[in-house]
């Protein structure tokens, strides 16, 4: 399998989507490896919860950002839970704005940057009174050389996790760099600070502060006693000084420009666009689109993984290995090291050194392995073809997969894309995003037909979480459910059906022992129906419409993954059969609908009913629309003999006096009638005292 993962890497490299660069990356001191941004959860390693550090080192990256727009726009095409699509939209983080370049006053071009460029989506520049840069910014680094306080601040800032740095509600901190810039439109001098809430890799790593119209900027200006001019009046019409954060009118709110010369009187959005036009005309800025998404760092400093199939020659640079797979060599000690060097650096020289594919001179293999998320980004393409005998040939860069490849073209056309993906939201910005990217890249290279669509998972359903005693199951709470004891006591079918009945599949529910007992009783009733099938055959005509209605309801529920609804419908059906009687046809329908929910019980009862082959080889029962419709009746609701309402109810409910009386009271608002008249399947008449 990892031969073809390496093949995928080579493809990425040959198409310019894989590259190596020195960058500040996430480092887990416990796992002793680099982590992708997506594997850092609230500043901690998703695997071991250690606080993640930042390290500057050379790594391999995939240009997933080249596909940012497509990854974002395609979310409109796919049938996924909105919360997962929202997570991907936020992670991709597309923003339209403008880069504005300021001259740094008094800068020496030989030692200092002469300009600083800020990115903003809301250029209310008549209200800009300061600039802030991140501690990674070169201007901050130069200031640190001259000012001890700035240096100390930067050191402390870089020790914090990114999550801590951008957390809302925390006190705003910073240090004055000693540099100033000139506001283009007000011509006033504005100070430049370094602050930890600006991240070096987001936008340009620098932001202009407009404290009257951004809450974060307001808090910073208050902390450092900077001017807070008003240039937008909100819907309330108040145009006085901005003294509290509640008076800040932010981008996205309705407002009108004031104190802004040629912008006065324009509404908020129109004024922003005119400002961008003006700055572009003057050469002070340029409209840009930015993304929160960063290129995928795939280098890992572990032993277990797919060796990155690259060779480095001092004369020729990096070249892909042509003979795949690059097998993982045996290492007696494969533990990661504190210095960050990959364990494969300790491999035998016969593995470590090889010939350069270009000049034939000595070259060294890459000793890092790829992120395991690269393996899982394409498994759905390989699995359908895994039984196909692929002739073992040397894979040359650029070689056609018609001769040798990771997946069979014909099989892929038959089986892909994936019909249904069932998974939790934990994969939202990891596996799901990476798989979409890999699918798009392979399709661009001609390995996946366009007619299969440009998404690998058109339909995704996120399952919910089953909790216990109101809390998520955990060893510390002592509320772990061990399925073995329930399997021994009730059997697999009872446990399976209870888990499906506990709540909507996308929401989950609270596990309770009483529910297990109830489900066990239900299956016992089904068994009893089959064993007593000759009890009453005269009333089955009444059941036929109800049978077809139930098949229709269960079919729709199963198709929509509403298992709890399907089971509830079967329970109603069993109630009806117990009351009205059964025949072989009604029982066959019951068992066929029950089969995917309780496979063992239904198989045994199917044999008792005379089934010759496995129930799981039978066709799903069909319903007749006419009979299914007949299962739904209209009941007339009267008050003192006069028509008040008509209600469409199931045939079973129309026969239930308690349900129909309760429905009539609810629909008419008559809670305490003097008398109740019930005609099964036809009407309910409530006799009331008018006075």
From TrEMBL:
The answer to keyword Amino-acid biosynthesis applying to this record is no
Listed GO MF terms? aminoacyl-tRNA deacylase activity; ATP binding; leucine-tRNA ligase activity
Alphabetically ordered keywords of this record: Aminoacyl-tRNA synthetase, ATP-binding, Ligase, Nucleotide-binding, Protein biosynthesis
Domain (Aminoacyl-tRNA synthetase class Ia) spans 293-379, 452-500
| The reaction(s) this protein catalyses | tRNA(Leu) + L-leucine + ATP = L-leucyl-tRNA(Leu) + AMP + diphosphate
Q: Where is the Leucyl-tRNA synthetase editing domain?
A: 89-279
InterPro entries linked to this entry: aa-tRNA-synth_Ia, Leu-tRNA-ligase, Leu_tRNA-synth_edit, M/V/L/I-tRNA-synth_anticd-bd, Rossmann-like_a/b/a_fold, tRNAsynth_Ia_anticodon-bd, Val/Leu/Ile-tRNA-synth_edit
The UniProt record lists the EC number as: 6.1.1.4
Outline the extent of the Methionyl/Valyl/Leucyl/Isoleucyl-tRNA synthetase anticodon-binding domain: 548-653
Q: Which GO terms describe its cellular component?
A: cytoplasm
GO terms (BP aspect): leucyl-tRNA aminoacylation
Question: Gene3D superfamilies under this entry?
Answer: HUPs, Isoleucyl-tRNA Synthetase, Domain 1
Report the sequence similarity comment from the record: Belongs to the class-I aminoacyl-tRNA synthetase family.
Q: What is this protein called?
A: leucine--tRNA ligase
UniProt organism field: Candidatus Beckwithbacteria bacterium CG_4_10_14_0_2_um_filter_47_25
């Amino acid at each position: 399998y990892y031969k073809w993962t390496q093949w995928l890497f080579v493809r990425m490299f040959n198409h310019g989507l894989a590259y190596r660069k020195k960058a500040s990356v996430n480092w887990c001191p416990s796992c002793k490896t680099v982590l992708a941004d997506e594997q850092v959860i609230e500043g901690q390693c998703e695997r071991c919860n250690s606080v993640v550090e930042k390290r500057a080192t050379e790594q391999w990256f995939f240009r997933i950002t080249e596909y940012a727009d497509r990854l974002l726009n395609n979310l409109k095409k796919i049938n996924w839970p909105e919360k997962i699509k929202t997570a991907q939209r936020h992670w991709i983080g597309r923003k339209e704005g403008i880069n504005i370049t300021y001259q740094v006053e008094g800068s020496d071009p030989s030692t200092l940057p002469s300009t600083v460029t800020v990115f903003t989506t809301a250029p209310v520049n008549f209200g800009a009174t300061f600039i802030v840069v991140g501690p990674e910014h070169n201007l901050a680094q130069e200031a640190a050389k001259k000012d001890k306080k700035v240096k100390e601040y930067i050191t402390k800032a870089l020790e914090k996790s990114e999550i801590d740095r951008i957390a809302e509600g925390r006190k705003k901190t910073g240090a004055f760099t000693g540099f100033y810039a000139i506001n283009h439109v007000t011509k006033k001098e504005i100070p430049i600070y370094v602050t930890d809430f600006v991240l070096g890799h987001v936008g340009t790593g620098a932001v202009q502060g407009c404290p009257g119209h951004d809450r974060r900027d307001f808090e910073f200006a208050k902390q450092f006693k900077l001017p807070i001019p008003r240039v937008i009046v909100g819907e309330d019409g108040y145009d006085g000084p901005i003294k509290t954060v509640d008076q800040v009118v932010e981008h996205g709110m309705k407002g009108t420009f004031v104190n802004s010369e040629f912008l006065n009187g324009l509404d908020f959005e129109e004024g922003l666009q005119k400002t961008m036009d003006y700055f572009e005309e003057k050469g002070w800025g340029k409209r840009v689109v930015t993304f929160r998404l960063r290129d995928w760092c795939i280098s890992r400093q572990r032993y277990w993984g797919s060796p990155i199939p690259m060779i480095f020659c001092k004369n020729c640079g990096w070249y892909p290995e042509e003979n795949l797979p690059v097998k993982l060599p045996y290492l007696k000690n494969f533990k990661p090291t504190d210095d960050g060097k990959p364990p494969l650096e300790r491999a035998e020289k016969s593995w470590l050194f090889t010939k350069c594919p270009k000049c034939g001179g000595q070259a060294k293999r890459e000793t890092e392995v790829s992120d395991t998320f690269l393996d899982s980004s394409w498994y759905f393409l390989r699995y359908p073809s895994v039984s196909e005998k692929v002739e073992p040939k040397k894979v040359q860069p650029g070689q056609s997969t018609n001769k040798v490849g990771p997946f069979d073209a014909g099989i892929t056309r038959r089986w892909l894309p994936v019909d249904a993906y069932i998974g939790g939201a934990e994969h939202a910005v990891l596996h799901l995003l990476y798989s979409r990217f890999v699918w798009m890249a392979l399709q661009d290279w001609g390995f996946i037909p366009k007619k299969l669509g440009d998404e690998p998972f058109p339909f995704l359903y996120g399952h919910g979480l089953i909790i216990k005693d109101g809390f998520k199951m955990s060893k510390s709470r002592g509320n772990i459910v061990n399925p073995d004891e329930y399997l021994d006591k009730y059997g697999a079918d009872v446990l399976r059906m209870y888990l499906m009945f506990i709540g909507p599949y996308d929401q989950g529910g609270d596990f309770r022992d009483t529910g297990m007992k109830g489900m066990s009783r239900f299956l016992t009733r089904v068994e009893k129906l089959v064993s007593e099938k000759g009890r009453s055959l005269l009333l089955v005509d009444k059941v036929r419409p109800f049978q077809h209605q139930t098949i229709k309801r269960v079919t729709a529920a199963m198709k929509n993954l509403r298992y709890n609804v399907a089971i509830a419908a079967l329970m109603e059906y069993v109630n009806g059969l117990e009351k009205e009687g059964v025949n072989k046809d009604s029982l066959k329908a019951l068992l066929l609908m029950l089969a995917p929910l309780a496979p063992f019980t239904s198989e045994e009862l199917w044999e008792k009913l005379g089934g010759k082959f496995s129930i799981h080889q039978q066709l799903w029962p069909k319903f007749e629309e006419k009979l299914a419709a007949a299962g739904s009746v209209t009941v007339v609701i009267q008050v003192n003999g006069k028509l008040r309402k008509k209600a469409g109810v199931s045939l079973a409910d129309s026969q239930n006096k308690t349900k129909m009386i309760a429905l009539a009271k609810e629909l008419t608002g008559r809670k305490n009638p003097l008398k109740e008249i019930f005609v099964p399947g036809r009407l309910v008449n409530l006799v009331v005292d008018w006075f």
